[in-house]
Amino acid sequence: MAVRTKIAVVVREDLAVWQKLNVTAFLTSGVASGCPETVGEPYEDASGVKYLPMFGLPVVVYAADAQAIKDAHTKALAKDLSIAVYTEELFATGNDEDNRAQVRAVSTEELNLVGFAVHGSRNAVDKALKGLSLHR
């Protein structure tokens, strides 16, 4: 029997709406590329038009304050989950190379996280994110 997995995104609750959407989009792209097993088959409509594949499982989005994000990130690291991160500094960059440099310049403990995404077993994801509220 296959292990049941889950994708979850945690976004800092005090961000502007456009920032929350941007962070969520970037983080889920990290899960899709880093965990290709999460992506289903391409779509096709009745007219034969083909569409890109999407995740084959649900994505749950949580909102949290900065400290709760930091705490959940620490738990996710301890559970060896696949993780994508987005730091506040990435709002000021304009390309992937600069984004990676911004993250690389800071230790794990000092990351100024505005969000992160995880993929792993449902049990491990649930334990890492226990106590967080679903985004409204």
From TrEMBL:
Coiled coil location: none
Source species, domain of life: Bacteria
SUPFAM superfamilies (UniProt xref): Peptidyl-tRNA hydrolase II
InterPro entries according to UniProt: DUF2000 (IPR018988), Pep_tRNA_hydro_II_dom_sf (IPR023476)
Name by which UniProt lists this protein: DUF2000 family protein
Organism: Allokutzneria oryzae
Lineage, broadest ranks: Bacteria, Bacillati, Actinomycetota, Actinomycetes, Pseudonocardiales
